[in-house]
User: Fold GIL1/IRKI C-terminal domain-containing protein from Arundo donax.
Amino acid sequence: MMSPAAIERGNMSQLLTEWGALSLDSLKKELAEANAHRDAALREAAEVRSSLGELATKLVSLEAYCSELKKALRQATSSPSVSRRSTRSIDASREPPMPVSHDVMVEGFLQIASEARLSVKQLCKALIQQVDEEANDGLSDKLNLLLRPYQLALTGGKQHCSKAVLYHLEAIMNQAMYQDFENCAFHRSGSPRCLDPAEDRRQSFAAFVALRNLSWNEVLRKGTKYYSEDFSRFCDRKMSGVVATLGWSRPWPEQLLQCFFVAAKCVWLLHLLAFSFGPPLTILRIEDGRAFDQMYMEDILLDRQQVRSPYQVKIMVMPGFYVQDRVLKCRVITTNSES
Assistant:
């Protein structure tokens, strides 16, 4: 009979043998799996190398194609046969976006247009007030000379100034203020700030933002040139134009100068914002004698819905604008074409 110790040693030996066999089988299985994974990895690596080779070949071809495309683009954009519309489409597709959305720019333009209209109206009221305060400075005679072709005249000063007189003065002032608005630099034969149209638009918008909140007190302290040389030159040109229109060269009082500054600033901002669009927004002018068209004009003295007689434009008070897919109507005064 075997002793307990011998039995225990026998059991342990059998367990070790079985464990060794199991471990060997497990190791063989793991080795086989590892070899299979290795073979799969080698095949995948070979496929990747092959793909990289094909990709490198395609990349070389793509670089050559891009080089040819750039060359063709340079030739196309310098060719006079290419339409402006197609060139703008190429530029628009690669230029960075404006700092604000298109809708914000449109609403901003409409707001500035309204401010410009009101500021010119205030300038005209200040001129009439100047007539009241300085009866002997000759301004009344100058204004009446401008109003004479329209069979109007100042009578009794500001308190008795008719709407017709005020609107006609607005028309005369707006004609001077908006002259050369179509030009990118707002003066005849002016050139753009930047030859790249996209960059020029961004610079126009940056100038608009910089001057939007410029105040009269800041101008009194440092002058317009400190804030913008372009705006300063614009103010000088428009002041010369208004003085020439009025034929009144006497020194202007501060209140009148402030009204002029506000009007000039609003019109300048309107121009900057118009040329921040691509393409720039177009001004809409109406010549005297044109038949009234309700789609493009607003009669500021008559109700078009109540008048059926044929009317024509007597004078344009405020120009309009083509604002993308909408029209900001011209403000006009009409007369009965049958009279």
